[in-house]
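Lecture 7 notes: from sequence to structure.

We start with a single chain of 224 residues. Read the sequence below before looking at the structure.
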Amino acid sequence: MAITDWAEGERPREKLLQRGAAALSDAELLAIFLRTGVTGKSAVDLARDLVQRFGNLTGLFAAREKEFCEIHGLGKAKYVQLQAIVEMSRRALKEEMQSGDALNSPRAVREYLQLSLRARQQEVFVAIFLDAQHRVIAAEELFQGTLTQTSVYPREVVKRALHHNAAALIFAHNHPSGVAEPSDSDRLLTDALKNSLLLVDVRVLDHFIVAGAGCLSFAEKGML
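Now the structure, written as tokens:
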């Protein structure tokens, strides 16, 4: 059945206008982006297939161009549009994160980090530099590769903190494995960074591990 044959209150666009975007399922939101389905499938049916194929929206956003374009009904134009939406969302979250106290905007910080890191195929280490009022000064990608205490250099992190005249930092890195649990190396690295930064009177407020749809906070787990 075509979406135009549905009851008006169940059509994704009308439903969004009546109840707000939060009332829609992932597939319904994706159907609005797709606009049309393919022969034998409505936009919602196609959207459900996409969510199932990639596991969730996170997996879809992280899909490579070739993998995305292989699906009947999609193509480069849709891939470009989707990546533009993801990037606009990332920038909007960064603006929200930078507009006030980072500790009073934990959702924006978490969602910004998830959008920035969850699709990366190798481990990436990011530092968010904060002033004395915990306002964001800058967010920088500092290291790539397998992250250990020997590949993330505390001395370099201290130098960047001093460069930005930061009073505090939030760290984050991703686990491409999809498991958002800290390894022994993650704990050792966090302790080494914390101790090094204390020498120059800079506090470490949190360390996030992003893995797929998960995002673990060291501070929330009492590990700082």
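The CA atoms of residues 53 and 60 lie 8 Å apart. Keep this in mind for problem set 3.
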